[in-house]
Amino acid sequence: MLKLFSLGAGDRQLIQTPLHDSLPVTGTSVALLFQQLGIQNVLSLFCAVLTENKVLFHSASFQRLSDACRALESLMFPLKYSYPYIPILPAQLLEVLSSPTPFIIGVHSVFRNDIHELLDVIIADLDGGTIKIPECIHLSQLPEPLLHQTQMALSLVLHPDLETADYAFPPPRTALSHTKMLDKEVRAIFLRLFAQLFQGYRSCLQLIRIHAEPVIHFHKAAFLGQRGLIENDFLTKVLNGMAFAGFVSERGPPFRACDLFDEVKTGVFFCLFLLLIPNYSIRNAKGMI
C-alpha cells in the first residue's frame, strides 16, 4: 500500500507499507548477523531468547548493535519478544544489565570491561564473532532432527559451495545471492522451523465461552505427548514462556486474519500428510486441511 503525505512547504512524500503487516522488516540485518557470528552462534542466541535467557551484544558500531538486536528479535516470528529490548543502552543505564528480567540489549564496546563481570548474561561480540555462555547457564537446544535440519539448510544457503566442494569435477560456481535475498532465504528457514515446531498446536487448544470474553487454554502436556517430546527441555521452556502465551492468545481464536505463518504451517502439514499417505487423493488432503 502506498501512502502520500506532506511535511510542509508544499512537499510530497511517498512511503510504501510492508506487504504483510505482521511480518518484521529486516532488510539485510539477519544475513549480516550470520556473517558476523556464524551459524552455530546465532542458533545458540536464538535458543537463548526463546528460553528466556539474557542476551547482550557489544560492538564498536552502533549500527551493528541496532541491526543485530533487530535481527535476533525478527527470527522469533511468529512469536513476539515480551521483555526489555534496548538496541543501544546509554552509559547511565548500565545497571539495567543486573536486572533479573530476560532482555535483548546492545552495549558499545567501550564498556566491555563492565559487562564481562556479568555472570548470568550470554554475551555476543559482534566485532570478534564470538559468544560467551557463562558456566551457570544451561542452554537448551532445538530438538532433533529439527536442529540438524536447520543447520544443514542454513549451511546450504550461506555456504552453497560446500555441497560440491568434494566433487572431482565441480560444476561452475554459481553467483551468491544478493544480501537482501540471502536475508529472506535465512528467514524462510526459521519460519519453516516454527511451522514444524508448532505443528498440530491448534488441536491442543480449548476455547472456553462461559465468560464474557472467551478464554483460550492450551494443553501443553497433550501437545508434548503427541510430539513425543514430553521430556524435551527446550520445547517445555518455550511453551511456558511469555512469548508463546502471547502467540496462543493472538492466534488461538478460530476466526481471525491469517498471515504468512499460517500459510507455511498449512504447507508443512500438507507435505507431511502426503509423505505418510502417498496414495491419498490430493484433493481430499486439501479438504482435510
From TrEMBL:
The organism's place on the tree of life at top rank: Eukaryota
PROSITE patterns: DENN (PS50211)
Pfam families, A to Z: DENN
Keywords carried by this UniProt record: Guanine-nucleotide releasing factor
GO terms for cellular component: cytoplasmic vesicle
InterPro entries registered for this protein in UniProt: cDENN_dom, dDENN_dom, DENN_C, DENN_Domain_GEFs, Tripartite_DENN
GO biological process, one term: regulation of Rab protein signal transduction
Domain UDENN: 1-258
SMART domains assigned: dDENN, DENN
Molecular-function annotations in GO: guanyl-nucleotide exchange factor activity
Name this protein carries in UniProt: UDENN domain-containing protein
Recorded name of the encoding gene: LOC104909319
